Amino acid sequence: MIEVCCAIIVDEDGLVLVTQRSTSMSMPLKMEFPGGKIEPGESPEECLIREIKEELDLDVQIIAPRPAAPWHYPNFSILLLPFVCRITGGTIVLKEHAAYAWMAPSDLLNCDWAEADVPIVQQYLNISNDVTS
User: Fold this and answer.
1) Residue 26: phi, psi to the nearest 5?
2) Which of 30, 10, 12, 132 lies closest to 82, judged by CA?
3) CA-CA distance, 67 to 95, in Å (whole number)?
4) Tens place of pLDDT per residue across the chain (133 aa)
């Protein structure tokens, strides 16, 4: 199983950053939380900070981990490790993705997500609702 970290980046207004996979990536044009594979000897947190810098040229601070979610695609399986983050520096520069958007949490389920991200979105919305209600 491939371990993959992803960032649920939230701004000061509660909007969430989502990115669209490019046409050259697997699952082209699907939406996802940015991130990537953990390299040998790397912690999930180190991976996330590195990947967000490489993909978006952003510096992020991890606020809280969220529960990991396994996903089984036909040809491979991943364990998606999500972290809620905030931006501490940089300006978004798309190095791998086709597009990005800041979205209200209530709009997240309307996106065409990569399948593995759907449980992460649902989990984030459930936890956010639990905290705010």
Assistant:
1) -65, 155
2) 10
3) 28
4) 999 999 999 999 999 999 999 999 889 999 999 999 999 999 999 999 999 999 999 999 999 999 999 999 999 999 999 999 999 999 999 999 999 999 999 999 999 999 999 999 999 998 655 443 3
pTM: 0.92
Annotate 25-58 with b (16+ C-beta within 10 A) or e (fewer).
eeeeebbbbbbbebeeebebeebbbbbbeebbeb
Distance CA 3, CA 104 (A): 28
> Got the DSSP string for 40-76?
TT--HHHHHHHHHHHHH-EEEEEEEE---EEEE-SS-
Local structure of 121: helix, strand or coil: helix
The answer to whether 101 and 92 have CB atoms below 8 angstroms apart is no
Other Cβ atoms within 10 Å of 79 Cβ, number: 16
Task: Say whether 22 sits in a helix, a strand or coil.
Answer: coil
Helical spans, DSSP H, in 1-133? 44-56, 117-132
Domain annotation for the chain: domains and CATH numbers: 2-132 (3.90.79.10)
